[in-house]
TrEMBL record:
GO terms for biological process, alphabetical: protein deubiquitination
Residue ranges that the Swiss-Prot or TrEMBL entry lists as coiled coil: none
Any Gene Ontology CC annotation: nucleus
Alphabetized PANTHER family for the sequence: LD34905P, UBIQUITIN CARBOXYL-TERMINAL HYDROLASE
GO molecular function ontology, one term from the record: cysteine-type deubiquitinase activity
A Pfam family reported for this protein in Swiss-Prot or TrEMBL: UCH
Domain USP: 1-279
Designated name of the protein: Ubiquitin carboxyl-terminal hydrolase
SUPFAM superfamilies in UniProt: Cysteine proteinases
Gene3D superfamilies given in the database record: Cysteine proteinases
This protein's UniProt keywords: Hydrolase
Source organism of this protein record: Acrasis kona
């Protein structure tokens, strides 16, 4: 008997990500879809050598260069930049890091080259002398193929600095020192999140706004070595007809729950996990 693999976790949390690889030699595009249950996004660091806005402008130019020749395969940097500017709380703050910056870093074009090159199914031939297939330079981009009903975004606050390789365009957004550490950068996030600009151009959802509403935040307080978690949850209310609506915000710490507010959640918390529900 065929097993039914659908379960409540998949139904609620599963999204499908696309990984598009474009071979730099023969321009062949290969696209692989994979299921995931949360998005783990990097946090761009704030550095003293240039403002985030300046680095984003340069990053935009590089992304745009690839996009122009692969519009049917890549995310449109214009739409992403527009969303970043829309989501900023303070238009004069040139170092404000928004959730959209993190999403952009997550989906940024990655360059595969050298030993990390791409084994292209169309043009990587066998090198007789070396006894192995020739690897090609290629670019890789992640995007959303199918959005989750309930989206969990994990901000990578803990770990080594992973994005310092010179071949990675991500390095451009991620400049910072190495070592195991907690990244305490303040990240602003909206109560209404629109992810339409991160949907793959071939996805059936490509013309939707992919609009989400915030209902939960988990915050880590403390350092790399010691700390604790608190959460904010927007209460779920069910009326006698079985209809759902969200009520007030609550702040929960261990067994203690207290009434909170949207202002405290959006401006007073430093998110580690963000939970959004799909609206349209
Ligand atoms: Zn190729």
């Amino acid at each position: 008997m065929k097993s039914n693999r659908h379960n409540i976790v998949d139904t609620c949390f599963k999204s499908v990500l696309s990984s598009s690889i474009i071979c730099g030699h023969c321009k062949n595009v290969s696209k692989v879809n994979e299921d995931c249950h949360d998005l783990s996004v990097p946090i761009p660091s704030v550095v003293s050598t240039a403002t985030l806005q300046e680095r984003v402008a340069e990053f935009y130019n590089r992304e745009m260069e690839s996009y122009r020749s692969h519009k049917s395969e890549m995310l449109n940097p214009d739409k992403i930049l527009e969303q970043i500017n829309f989501d900023k709380r303070d238009e004069n703050d040139e170092n404000e890091v928004t959730l959209m910056h993190c999403m952009w870093a997550f989906t940024a074009k990655e360059v595969l080259s050298g030993e990390n090159g791409y084994n292209c199914e169309k043009c990587s031939h066998l090198d007789q002398e070396e006894g192995k297939r020739v690897l090609r330079d290629a670019t890789k981009q992640l995007s959303i193929q199918k959005p989750a009903k309930v989206l969990t975004i994990h901000l990578k606050r803990f770990g080594h600095q992973l994005y310092s390789g010179k071949n990675s365009l991500l390095a451009h957004l991620m400049q910072s020192g190495g070592g195991l550490r907690k990244n305490s950068t303040q990240v602003t996030f909206p109560k209404s999140l629109e992810l339409g600009s991160f949907i793959h151009p071939s996805s059936p959802w490509k013309n939707t706004m992919c609009k989400y509403r915030l209902f939960g935040v988990v915050e880590h307080q403390g350092t790399m070595n010691s700390g604790y978690y608190i959460s904010f949850v927007k209460q779920l209310q069910v009326n006698k007809n079985g209809e759902h609506r969200r009520g007030e915000w609550y702040r929960i710490s261990d067994s203690h729950a207290a009434l909170s507010s949207q202002l405290e959640v959006l401006e007073g918390s430093q998110p580690y996990l963000l939970m959004y529900e799909l609206v349209e």
